[in-house]
Amino acid sequence: MFRLFLPIIFFLVGATFLISSLNLPKARLGDPYGPMYYPTLVSGLLILLSVIYIIQEWRKRHDGFPELELLLKGRTPFLLISTIVLSLIYAFLFEKIGFLFSTIIFLGGLLFIINGRKKWISNIVIAICFSGLTWYSFAILLKVSLP
């Protein structure tokens, strides 16, 4: 039954987006339903593909599930859980301390988890340079306001 977990999640996400897109306000200029077309199309496709995925996985429900065993081997569970935790911390810090510093912390933490402490110099340099270049590109070159 674990096979059906992911396609059901996709279906629920698609249904949620479909309901949300149908509740979008109408445009005051041009076609009043214009803002609804694209999200409705994408969420409808997600629901359709999720149903196909559910049917495919339902047919294979009695077969083994080697992908799950691979997912639970080695460092993979640690990497998954630590990435989720770091992402939650990043989302919390993003509004508090802004894009630049929260991205440096997030990216540095992620690189330390993946590469280990032996490559600490490259982890720090990559985290600072990537975050700085991204901030510079958006804030200075493209004039996009970042928190």
Please characterize this protein's 3D structure.
Keywords: Membrane, Transmembrane, Transmembrane helix. Pfam families: TctB (PF07331). Residues 7-147 form the DUF1468 domain. The chain crosses the membrane at residues 36-55, 76-93, 99-116, 123-142. This protein is mainly α and 147 residues long. 76% of the residues lie in helices and 0% in strands. The chain folds into 2 domains: 2-64; 72-140, no CATH class. It has helices spanning 5-22, 34-59, 66-71, 76-97, 99-115, 120-141. It is flat, with a radius of gyration of 21 Å. The N and C termini lie far apart (42 Å).
Query: Roughly how many Å apart are the termini?
Result: 42 Å
The total strand number stands at: 0
pLDDT averaged residue by residue: 91
Number of domains: 2
Residues in helices, as a percent range: over 70%
What is the count of helical runs?
A: 6
Strand content: under 5%
Helices and strands: which structural class? mainly alpha
The value of Rg in angstroms is 21 Å
- Given as residue ranges, the uncertain stretches (5+ residues, pLDDT < 50) are none
Global outline: flat
Helix and strand pattern: HHHHHH
- Summarize the main sheet: none
Keywords: Membrane, Transmembrane, Transmembrane helix
Transmembrane segments: 36-55, 76-93, 99-116, 123-142
InterPro entries: DUF1468 (IPR009936)
Organism: Paenisporosarcina antarctica
Name a few traits of the molecule.
147 residues; single chain; 2 domains; mainly alpha; flat; 6 helices; membrane
